[in-house]
Amino acid sequence: MMPTIRDVARHARVSVGTVSNVLNGSSLVKDETRQRVMAAIETLGYHPTAAARSLSTQRTNTIGMIRSEIRLQGNLIETDPMVLDLIDGITSEAINSSIGLTFWAIPAGQREMELYRRLVTSRQIDGLILFALREKDPRVAYLQEQAFPFVIFGRFESMEGDNWIDVDGAAGIEAAVRHLAELGHRRIAYLSPPHEQSLTRLRWQGFVRGMEEMNLSIDPALIYEGDFSEKSGQLGTHYFLDQPNPPTAIFCNNDRMAFGAMRAIQARGLTVGSDVSVVGFDDISLARYSNPPLTTLNQPIHDIGKALFNLLIKLINREPTDLLGGKLLKPELVIRQSTGRPR
Amino acid sequence: MMPTIRDVARHARVSVGTVSNVLNGSSLVKDETRQRVMAAIETLGYHPTAAARSLSTQRTNTIGMIRSEIRLQGNLIETDPMVLDLIDGITSEAINSSIGLTFWAIPAGQREMELYRRLVTSRQIDGLILFALREKDPRVAYLQEQAFPFVIFGRFESMEGDNWIDVDGAAGIEAAVRHLAELGHRRIAYLSPPHEQSLTRLRWQGFVRGMEEMNLSIDPALIYEGDFSEKSGQLGTHYFLDQPNPPTAIFCNNDRMAFGAMRAIQARGLTVGSDVSVVGFDDISLARYSNPPLTTLNQPIHDIGKALFNLLIKLINREPTDLLGGKLLKPELVIRQSTGRPR
DNA sequence: TACTTAAATTGAACCGGTTCAATTGGATGC
DNA sequence: GCATCCAATTGAACCGGTTCAATTTAAGTA
């Protein structure tokens, strides 16, 4: 049997209240008493039981993150390496405050909301991190209604509240289009994210803005909706290159689709960067090691994870967030060899 | 205030014991009573509080996984995409039993063991999943001593116990070497995992076995210790190609190093698959979309995640595991275009 | 109808912490 | 010497579930 706080109290000849005060760093305890209690804790190898503490403090010291898969074309979207970087960022910050990150995976839909409801009402977690936001996301509506602490990586078009951090995808895409236009590209294809995603419309606006700015016309035949997978990048690119008037550049909304696109171009005996240029989004660690290395939009995902964590903790503690209407970061265009002057 | 079990009891005009029985599906409750309790639960929107339940059942319905980073050459090893697939597998199985997977990140070393000790003694989790096993891993010794339920993805050379699942890396590498030798390669370089890892020695044995089997000699100049990063794959490959008598094929112990290797080969104006062949390990989803697509060893990582989860649950419940001395899976050699006949 | 047995229900005790009103003890002031 | 004050300590009540011995209810039997 593990020692309890009462065992420690008995051993140190003090009351449980005093032990509790020592554990929680109360200044009320005399130094000599504290020493004695510490010694007892040490010799007994005592650690407070998480569940008991949670029960009385109403805190679990755990935050949650749920991978809500969307099925497209009958296939599960696999999780992006990007998400792993996000987890990296969150956990590397969480370790300092002894807070754990709990993970669930569930398909979007009926059962998804059940899971959220269960987590919230059973108070298994103190707060939630949401990502891959959908338009009219039912999760956001529910959590807002319940006044449950949560932060979002992403945002809606018009977003109230200060609980989100996002990368300005539109501005990034605008910069990418400008880069391509300056290289001399006039026919630029657009490999879109799935339409349910809330970022899809925002990013599209950036593309339109960029094209208008550079006086380029948008050809509806050069738009293809992907699902973030390499496969869909490949399919979309073949579709583009089958057009009577194919593009000389393809903008892809993530790196994985860009890898698929490059593969498709090469499979046709064409050269990436001269015959067809490719731009990605995310700058996952592989992007600089692909062949050719990928021009892409870098987002400081590790730092975003850290920031999301710190923001969430503030919300949980009901401290002011010193954010007004979220936080928007600029992605940086990293130019590598997948883009070049068209033939 | 959230409703408690006593509120439900009052509302349904039964005792708390009966409500508890209904919640836990006891067969003792009369059907009519059950209906009444269910109705009360529904109208009050009641969900049992996780902490209270944990306190009395001594179960948290949470399992843990800790990313223990090893610092090599002053750099953090970033987590492999492979780990994400593992998480995918675990969580997709865990959702069915309402069990969460909690994540921590901590550098290997002093503080690492503190974290493990805290998690075990504070009973924040019911069990642990270990991976990236090191030789003489202190975590294994501690958990064994504490009789804390845990499973391992990986194994030691001589491993007692039935709580591990591993891929037979040695057999895989043997097959890879055979494949290369059959293509006509005689000088095969070996890009090793970091020496601390417990899989390093096992995999090396596979390489030696394969080379001996094919009557090839091992050149010490064609061995390089990497750290699983693309960067180290690049560095190792440049080192190999700088040798007076360079290799015609390179075996890399993971796909990320293989990508780095291919990049280095191409940076020298050489062609992967004809000038130098490259083999990877893992078959991450990008492997089939690289340029050229990567010949690699596929491990069913998603299924391994599921199996690890189910094994751990059995250990937690002290059920028989019907495994005798762990479970060893054969990786499958997937031949793509990064390997070919040497010039 | 009375008696036995099985099924259903009850509720106090328990899990192991935190909290806070009440109490103790020692120092200070007059 | 006694009252006052404050720092330190105490321990019962509470958080919200589960458990199980004891009790009530219902069904079956003679």
What would your notes on this structure say?
2 copies of one chain form a homodimer. Chain A is α/β, with parallel strands linked by helices and 343 residues long. Chain A has 3 domains: 5-48, Orthogonal Bundle (434 Repressor (Amino-terminal Domain)); 62-167 and 301-329, Response regulator (Rossmann fold, 3-Layer(aba) Sandwich), CATH 3.40.50; 169-299, Response regulator (Rossmann fold). Chain A contains 12 helices and 14 strands. In chain A, α1 crosses α3 (31-44), α5 packs across α12 (301-316) and α10 crosses α11 (255-267). At the A-B interface, α4, β1, α5, β4 and α6 of A face α4, β1, α5, β4 and α6 of B. β4 of chain A pairs antiparallel with β4 (100-107) of chain B. The structure holds a DNA duplex (30 and 30 nucleotides).
Which characteristics define this entry?
alpha/beta, Rossmann fold, homodimer, six-stranded parallel β-sheet, 3 domains, 343 residues, 434 Repressor (Amino-terminal Domain)
Which percent band covers the strand fraction of chain A?
15-25%
Tell me the domain tally of chain A.
3
Spatial strand arrangement across the major sheet of chain A:
4-1-5-6-7-13
Specify the CATH architecture of the largest domain in chain A: 3-Layer(aba) Sandwich
Q: What's the average pLDDT of chain A?
A: 92
Number of strands of chain A: 14
Structural category of chain A: alpha/beta
Find the biggest chain interface: A-B, 58 and 58 residues
What global shape of chain A is seen? Answer: elongated
CATH class of the largest domain in chain A: Alpha Beta
Quaternary state of this entry equals homodimer
